[in-house]
Amino acid sequence: MGYRRRVASLESTDGQGYTDRLKNVQGPLWKRVLDVQRPYRWNVRRLFDEREVLDVGCGIGRNLGHLAPHGVGVDHNAHSVQHCRDLGLTAFTTAEFGDTEYAKPGRFGGLLAAHLVEHMPRPQAVEILRGYLEYVASGGLVVLICPQERGYASDSTHVAYTDLDGLADVCAQLGLTVQESKSFPLPRAAGKLFTYNEFVVAATKA
What we know:
methyltransferase, single chain, transferase, 36% helix, alpha/beta, seven-stranded mixed beta sheet, 206 residues, methyltransferase activity, 9 helices, Rossmann fold
């Protein structure tokens, strides 16, 4: 399936407003009490198994927290990066990252791009990810995660609906070999009703 673009005006993802929106969505007390992130935390840790991970498009650090202390984040939104730092996480803006000690070829055992690809046309997503692949070691794991139908429709900043076939195409363009492809945490049919059902593809770098 090719990507579908929204025709409505899009909210920006690079301002304070977007950071506040993410905090409002992820921060309610009931979510913390019920630990709704438990299955997602388990899945990310299972996939990377304590590898050092570069989290591209880290947002306000949800997955960085899951990966701690093995994650380094990068994001174009300076407000979101500052929020990550306020939480004690290691994160940099896209402008900063290239000058850090972490920007070394093969530095990381893995790369995570969770809820990044759907925010732009697929060619742009491929270009961005290709720019960070040099920091992943040979044999390193690359994990791509996108929302399913309900989750995609819930955010006006989403641009390109990307399913498992779409993520496999991204991997192919990047020269990655897919190792695992699944719907998570519920079966595929739940994606039309459950906002937080995700497409998850894990691939390896040659």
